[in-house]
DNA sequence: CTGAAAGCGCTTACAG
DNA sequence: CTGAAAGCGCTTACAG
């Protein structure tokens, strides 16, 4: 049972395939009668043009690639949904690619996407080996970076001001009276985390409460790893009174470690996350966190990718959005007398 | 800067395009020397065959469609990840489509996917208007239903035994001593929920603790809606001592409603969910829930879709997997004297 | 073993 | 306004 082709409708309507094609694409001039007849036949035959064939003729595939670390991570699944919705509205489908922040996966996926002649690619994952991206950027395939940055890469990007997000977290903790703080950072490959930590440290330093380097722990981005790292911190003699976590997953791990260690949050330990995912609304206590304006960011990504914002391809846009502190229940004033746990 | 085509490598290697094609696909017989030379040229020119062109010749597009209600819902985002990984291993990409359980979206997406000549489609979303699916099933496009069923549709399916899942939930609550229970169900369109409720009711009935119909509330699948419905239930004079929720989202809503109403979980109210998503590990108390063997299910879906399990297309497989009770902290014995809240 | 040629389902100049 | 024809980048018989 072969699908009906343009030939079938042309024959059925008694016209040439060129006319059918023109009718569909609104090109050329076609007599109204002929056009109506053609549409009627298409309807009757349930004709659906093959995007494969038209893509081969140099038209679009109406498919976009989305590279993120992991769709099953709520932060990224929320992004994936926004991207999908906007894409769908514009007639595009999106191929989601979870990279686990591994370069080999990034490479493999990009190669795959290229072979499929996609129309554009959104990169929201960390990449170490930038050569491949450089090369990609040199081709005609539109790229936009989302919430990540690769220095020296000439592409559009829409970012959150992660540095400022870090200062917001620090400011909040400082205002509450904390002076003994620690941070759980993501892997150094993740440029956004690096910025967040920088901002955090900077604000602390400015306030004369500079953080010691060994109170900055690097983790993989998972609840389990956050728990492990936070547990380590809580066992130290000089326990911090507040913890800044570079994403909500890590913060939740911290919450769990605190519970296990019998440390009350927020009374004995304040915890602040980043991203404002659904997870942060679900924990007890609910998580204070830094929000990124995701919806707007995704919208801008589209403007850049398939809209006219990205048209003048001479200058690459770099759009930076403002983060926001979302105060919930996991942060409070530090305990009156800081517990100096002695072994 | 046009991409390099098969002609470029043929010319460069001094052979015909047919030989290049054969070399790539391991077809026909090619002299070892020629073959090596061809590969060397492909490498040098960075030649990547166009899947568009080969798809037009009737070969696969190596693209799969995945229809689910919502990627940003953790249950489905976890599925999406498993699907992606298995697909990736087999050289496929997947286009994720969030339907919100709306038929119009289902139709639009399916049409889109058909035009893109995808190789197969996984349907994990509720569908009311089955005509369209019937028609789809009549075509050559492989389909497999995942965790959802449409009666009368002749396609492969891999399911959890939702009815049994419901009885597990009931059995657990019964064993704990609960007799006054209620349920938060999803929309009736969701066949799996219907089965879960049926099983739950059945087990209760068997135990002589039949549930009253007005203690079964239907909700949209969101935390907010679960909270609303649970709140309603908790305000009743005859408050239930246990709540079975058809998915974790609803259960979390129930947890939140209980907290707001000052009802302690699990001391005064037991709550049990379904799906065992990451969310259930993150709440306080952690959620007792019913788990589906998702990884295995996704594996089977692939066997059916692109493996040999689905080959003999005469008989459609219907594979039913066993659910499992995951006991955590949100369920316990009912309070000694059941509170009879009088207005 | 190897290559010339037809064809997949479209789009696009180009004549009429 | 309309249609014949070439071509997109491949694959596949079919001769040699």
From TrEMBL, chains A, B:
Single Gene Ontology MF annotation: transcription cis-regulatory region binding
PROSITE patterns found in the cross-reference section: HTH_LACI_1 (PS00356), HTH_LACI_2 (PS50932)
Domain HTH lacI-type: 4-58
SUPFAM superfamilies per record: lambda repressor-like DNA-binding domains, Periplasmic binding protein-like I
Pfam families: LacI, Peripla_BP_1
CDD domains the UniProt entry points to: HTH_LacI, PBP1_LacI_sugar_binding-like
Keywords associated with the record: DNA-binding, Transcription, Transcription regulation
Protein name: LacI family transcriptional regulator
Natural source organism: Paenibacillus nasutitermitis
């Amino acid at each position: 049972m072969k699908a009906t082709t343009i030939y079938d409708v042309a024959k059925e309507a008694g016209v040439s395939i060129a006319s059918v094609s023109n009718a569909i694409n609104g090109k050329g001039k076609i007599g109204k009668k002929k056009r109506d007849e053609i549409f009627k036949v298409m309807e009757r035959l349930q004709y659906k043009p093959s995007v494969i064939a038209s893509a081969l003729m140099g038209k679009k595939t109406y498919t976009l690639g989305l590279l993120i670390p992991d769709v099953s991570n709520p932060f990224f699944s929320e992004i994936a949904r926004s991207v999908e919705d906007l894409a769908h509205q514009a007639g595009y489908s999106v191929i989601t690619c979870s990279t686990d922040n591994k370069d080999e996966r990034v490479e493999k996926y990009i190669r795959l996407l290229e072979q499929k002649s996609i129309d554009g690619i959104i990169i929201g994952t960390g990449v170490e080996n930038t050569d491949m991206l450089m090369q990609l950027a040199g081709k005609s395939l539109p790229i936009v970076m989302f919430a990540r940055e690769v220095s020296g890469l000439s592409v559009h990007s829409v970012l959150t001001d992660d540095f400022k997000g870090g200062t917001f977290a620090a400011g909040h903790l400082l205002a509450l009276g904390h002076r003994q703080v620690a941070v759980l950072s993501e892997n150094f490959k993740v440029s956004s985390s690096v910025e967040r930590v920088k901002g955090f440290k900077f604000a602390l330093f400015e306030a004369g409460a500079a953080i010691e380097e060994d109170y900055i722990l690097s983790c993989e981005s998972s609840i389990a790893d956050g728990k492990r790292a936070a547990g380590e911190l809580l066992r130290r003699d000089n326990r911090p009174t507040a913890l800044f976590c570079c994403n909500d997953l890590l913060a939740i791990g911290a919450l769990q470690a605190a519970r296990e260690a019998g440390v009350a949050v927020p009374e004995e330990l304040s915890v602040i996350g980043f991203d404002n995912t659904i997870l942060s609304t679900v924990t007890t206590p609910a998580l204070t966190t830094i929000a990124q304006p995701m919806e707007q960011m995704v919208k801008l990504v589209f403007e850049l990718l398939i809209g006219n914002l990205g048209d003048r391809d001479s200058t690459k846009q770099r759009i930076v959005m403002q983060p926001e502190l979302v105060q919930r229940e996991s942060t409070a004033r530090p305990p009156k007398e800081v517990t100096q746990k002695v072994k």
